[in-house]
Amino acid sequence: MFDDYNPAIPPNYNNDEPLTVEIQVYILSIDSMSDLSKDFAMSIFLRQRWKDKRLKYDRIPGVPALQLNTKISGTFSCDVDLLKYPLDNQICPLIIESYGYTSETLVLQWYEEAVEKKEDIILSQFSLDCIKTFKCDKQYAGMNFSCVQMNIKLDRLYDYYLLQIYVPSILVVILSWVSFWISVDATPARISLGLLTVLAMTTQSSGLPKVSYFKAIDVWMVSCLCFVFAALIEFAYVNVLSRVEQRRQSHVVDITNNKTENIRRNLPEKVMEFCLMNVTGQTVSIKLNLLRLF
User: Which CDD domains does this chain map to (predicted)?
Assistant: First the structure.
């Protein structure tokens, strides 16, 4: 029976009926998910089952089913969309496709229980939400190829970002408002506090994923930076008003002093003479210069 058996040729290659191969995936682990390189690492058992009429035994009824189990560990591409980052969820596909045979020769389809997974799969930044399976036949150069696809939905855990991004940024904004209670004359203290808060916001933003579009967290960080920058603008405005007021008051004092001095110089003097009798009987004349008051 095995003399003319060629495992490289599909069982139904010479017939009009295509060979149906059932696919099942057992997920062992999802090790990592990278937002920068847009990929994820995963280990799976790939199970393939089909029937080969050429292996039929006379003493065994029916057509035997063959099953091939393969362990695959690798890095798979995932088109990451960070528009709602870090409150986002990612859908990462796994596509299994026929390479050498068209759909006229080989057809892939899922088991009834297409995907199974270990119960204790733990990811550091994501939670495994749901898995959807469907067929995805494709066409290349006018020929149809059979394929099946599995979409893995990963929900990002935002607890880390709540403690490391959102809460510190709120505290930095509140810290920038402390400058409102610092005296206007304490210019070095208020400038140092303002620059410190601006640098803190800039440092936080530098650790975020860099993409060409605005993320949800970028809107939050820009809003916080605007509040911090507004505190600096408020200090500059108040400082300018304070200096203008000081110059105005100094000018008023100078004008008042000059007017007083001019008045003193221009007022006429009134001489009052008092005649007193001394003990010797002689008359003493005393003159007092008084300012005429109006």
Answer: LGIC_TM_anion
